[in-house]
Amino acid sequence: MQTLIKNGTIITASDTIQADVLIDGEQVALIGRNLPQGDATVIDATGKLLLPGGIDVHTHLELPFGGTLSSDDYFTGQRAAAFGGTTSHIDFVIQPKGGSLKEGVDAWHAKAEDKAVIDYGFHVAITDLRDEVMAEIPSMVDEGITSLKLFMAYKGVLQVDDTTLFRAMQVAAEHGLLVMVHAENGDVIAELTDGLLAAGKTAPKYHGVAHPAMAEAEATGRAVALAGISGASLYVVHMTCEESLEQLALGRAKGFRVMGESCTQYLYIFEDDLARPGFEGAKFVCSPPVRQPKDAPFLWKALADGTLQVISTDHCPFWYQGGVDGRIPGKELGKQGFHNIPNGMPGIEDRMAVMWHGGVNGGRYSPNRFVEITATNPAKIFGLYPRKGTIAPGCDGDIVIWDPEKEHTITAATHHMNTDYNVYEGMTVHGWPEKVLLRGRLLVDGDDWLGERGSGQFLRRRPFGEVL
Fold it and tell me: Contact, 139 vs 453, CB < 8 A?
């Protein structure tokens, strides 16, 4: 089967060209002017942009957390991603306590089987780093998994000490794996949380007080230093504030192999949202927490100038009104205390639109840089490039036909994520996907869903490549 996309403007991380794109089977076969139609199905993209399918490298589908599950599974979450222009994502496998990494990987494959509708890969989040698990780390490369995550927070549950983190970095460096860290000082957070609860300060807004920016900055600096000593490549997830960016920039200036991402919510949602009346602030509880409006300009600048390499979502949705109409429990689990609110927000469907609107339309970066941080850099860093992340002969036919003029108002009433609120509720953006193709197959055509359950493929990733 051939598909010919005519009269569009191709946007890659490096080039902007007006050309036709011929997809033969699942791959881009030819790019050129006035390509002959032949027997191909023709899509007219006059006035539209052709973008590489977005890659969201930080998601949590069907994640067990705090006595419940994140509310999007591998069908609903991936379908929502496709409607937003994301055609690949990397989800976090959670090692079961007392179990092996392979047990976690097998469990996540089972979650995706017969549900997946876009392509996906896995990171492994290590929760119990015993000696035998440390010895198991190199085998993840054979599973097609080349990145592992460790937690410097969640004391008593997920947090590792510096010795364990450093040893894991040494093993990763030896075997070509990328180390990802959740960088917050878990000891400080635990002390602050206990003090706030003892004082009766239980409302959602105190989640932010318990997770100060300097606790993130300290842990970021510590992780960067350990990466420099060990020679490991480090990727700091969900960075939120000026103070932590300073630590990342310092490590990069010293030539350490360190990279970072931020997430869309930290550019638009702030501490005042945590303090909304009643319990509504629970909608915006995530870790690290949303910060102050003063931090957003530093994040935008870091995304534009290369201090940060990637924008992700940390998509981890929970129902606000959980337990209604058969729903699984949600944010209401924390009504008696902010420490019990399930951490996470929905966002996988909105990432491309809000980053185009605020970044390109806002004059903060070019369309090429938009492609770089939403698709190309994620593909390069996580071992998917050039199969994914660009539009070129031989790459997968993952193409978003983007209408830069289309106006769309984001609302839970029309989104496709399996949750009852949207953190960007009422935000009007200019720029929205018109059609979305995955490996040459049309998944989204306007408001119509054409994808099929089970058609998404697991992405066996190669060792990563730094973007320095």
Answer: no
Spatial distance between the Cα atoms of 437 and 430, rounded to a whole number of angstroms = 21
Roughly what angle, to the nearest 10 degrees, separates helices 213-230 and 162-175? 50
> What single-letter amino acid sits at 118?
I
DSSP tag of 443 = E
- The packing angle between helices 242-253 and 213-230, to 10°, is 20
Q: Which residues contact 73 (CB under 8 A, 6 or more apart)?
A: 61, 62, 111, 115, 418
Mean pLDDT of 3-8: 98
User: Cβ atoms within 10 A of the Cβ of 103, count?
Assistant: 13
142 CB-near residues (< 8 Å, 6+ apart) = none
- pLDDT per residue as tens digits for the range 222-254: 999 999 999 999 999 999 999 999 999 999 999
Fold (topology level) of 2-51+388-449: Urease, subunit C; domain 1 (2.30.40)
- The per-residue pLDDT of the chain, averaged, comes to 97
Place of tokens 């949380």: 193
Assign residue 439 a region: left if phi > 0, alpha if psi is -120 to 50, beta otherwise?
left
What is residue 359's DSSP assignment? Answer: I
Please name the helix (run of DSSP H) or strand (run of DSSP E) that holds residue 236, with its range, or none.
strand 234-236
The two tokens of residue 426 are 């009422």
* Paired tokens of 126: 């290590």
pLDDT exceeding 70 applies to what percent of the chain? 99
Element (DSSP H or E) covering residue 91? strand 86-94
User: Where in the chain are the domains?
Assistant: 2-51+388-449, 55-368
Q: Considering the domain delimited by 55-368, tell me its CATH architecture.
A: Alpha-Beta Barrel (3.20)
Tokens 């896995």 sit on residue: 122
Taking only the tens place, the pLDDT of each residue in 150-187 is 999 999 999 999 999 999 999 999 999 999 999 999 99
